[in-house]
């Protein structure tokens, strides 16, 4: 063990259980590296993912974003397409976007869709699904308010779920 690691261990009481708020406050005193350190949180949720009523899944918009630039493609028609462009969507389309995806052009990171365009998205579901790009109402990527969805995704929205091994992780 290094001297730095030993000095950090002395600041932690291993016999005490810390609340989330106490742990978050303690992170500033434990910072010792010259770069932005990563923090991981492990929690026991006591859920069984085999039961549909115990699934934990959703999306949250981080207050300061993720620090990454996200390219958003939107399936929308008419007024909703204009709203998506105004909200900052990189690609907006319907049939032309389907043709690009079938041709193997993936110049986006997230797909958002209006409910009336899900018929088109269904045609390319076998392509988008394995890549993790298929829009889903549970994560907020299928919504009538496409402008708000684009703003959330661009602002640092992170999807999360519990997997089969009961591990809570980002999607």
Structural commentary:
The chain is of the alpha/beta class and 171 residues long. It has helices at 3-10, 20-30, 78-87, 95-102, 118-123, 125-131, 146-154; strands at 57-61, 72-75, 91-93, 110-113, 157-162, 168-170. The strands form 2 sheets. A 3-stranded antiparallel β-sheet has the order 1-5-6. Helix 3 (78-87) links the parallel strand 2 and strand 3. The longest helix is centred in the first third of the chain and has 11 residues, at 20-30. The model has no long low-confidence stretch (mean pLDDT 85).
Class by helix and strand content? alpha/beta
The H-and-E topology, N to C, reads as: HHEEHEHEHHHEE
Shape: elongated
What portion of the residues fall into strands of 2 or more residues?
5-15%
E-strand count: 6
Distance between the termini: 35 Å
Largest beta-sheet details: 3 strands, antiparallel
Specify the number of helices: 7
Give the spatial strand order of the biggest sheet.
1-5-6
- The portion of residues assigned to helices is 25-40%
- How large is the radius of gyration? 21 Å
Average pLDDT works out at 85
Given as residue ranges, the uncertain stretches (5+ residues, pLDDT < 50) are none
Key structural traits:
single chain; 171 residues; alpha/beta; three-stranded parallel sheet
Topology:
Layout: H1 3-10, H2 20-30, E1 57-61, E2 72-75, H3 78-87, E3 91-93, H4 95-102, E4 110-113, H5 118-123, H6 125-131, H7 146-154, E5 157-162, E6 168-170
Parallel strand pairs: 2-3, 2-4
Antiparallel strand pairs: 1-5, 5-6
Helix pairs in contact: 3-7
